[in-house]
Amino acid sequence: MTYILGIDPGATGGICLLDDDERVVWAEKREQFDETELADFIALAKASGFLLYAFLERAQSFPKMGVVGAFKYGEGYGFWQGLLTANGIGFETVPPLTWQRALGVTKKHKEITQSQHKKNLVAEARSRWPSLPKHSGVCDAALIALYGSRLRNAGKERMKP
After folding, report:
1. CA atoms of 144 and 125, how far apart (whole Å)
2. 72-85: per-residue pLDDT in tens?
3. What is the rounded CA–CA span in Å between residue 77 and residue 94?
4. Do residues 42 and 82 make contact, with C-beta atoms less than 8 angstroms apart?
C-alpha cells in the first residue's frame, strides 16, 4: 500500500495522509504539533514499511503578505524539506496554482477575495471527506495529497521508494 502525504507548510497549515483509495487515514492542523512530534510521526510512518511519498506545497510570498508571515511560511517550508530528506522520504514540491488547477479549484473570478477562495477550498475538501476539520490548512493538505495521488495514479509518478 502506498500512502501519500499532503503538506501545507504554513504555521497554520495542515498535514493529511491518504491511502491508495484516496481515503483520509490521518489529518491534523500543523499547530497541534511541535517539531519533535512531527519528526516522530514521520519516522513512525517510514518505519511502518509502507511506501510513503509526500507532496509539499511550495512556499512563495504573496502580495500584501507581511515580512514576518513570509518568513514564518518559509521557515515551515524549510523544516518540512529537511525532515523529509533526513528520513529518506521522497517528495515533490508543488506550487499552489498547480494543484488547484489540476483539481479545478482555482480562484475563477478576480472579484473573489482570498478569504472566500479559502472557504471554497474548505468546502471542496469537505465535500470529498466530510469528516475533515473545517480548517483551511488541513483541507489544503488533503487536496494537495489528492493531487499527488492522482498524479501517481495517472502514471506520471516520479516517486522513488
Report:
1. 10
2. 767 888 989 999 99
3. 12
4. no
